[in-house]
Amino acid sequence: MKRKDWVKVYLSDEQKRLLRKIAESLGIGESEVLRQAFMEYAKSISLITERVHQRI
Questions:
Q1: pLDDT tens profile 13-44
Q2: Apex 14 CA angle, 8 and 16, nearest 5
Q3: What span, in angstroms and rounded, lies between the C-alpha atoms of 54 and 46?
Q4: Cα separations in angstroms, 3 against 6, 8, 49
């Protein structure tokens, strides 16, 4: 099983407050909110699609 990597993210006080609010409203952890946002961004700029097509 592949080991997960750690990434450190620095947020302003306002960004941290928004992250907490989002996490609480969704009922998930702050790191999960960031992970999902990252993946949505990758999809929105077509990185996910490009990666899938390169493997075929």
A1: 999 999 999 999 999 999 999 999 999 998 88
A2: 35
A3: 12
A4: 10, 16, 24
Name, in order, each residue with C-beta under 8 angstroms of 27's C-beta and a sequence gap of 6 or more. none
Confidence at residue 46, expressed as pLDDT on a 0 to 100 scale: 84
pLDDT given at position 54 = 61
For residue 11, the one-letter residue type is: L
What is the number of alpha carbons within 13 Å of residue 22 lying toward its C-beta? 14
Longest dimension (CA), the chain: 44
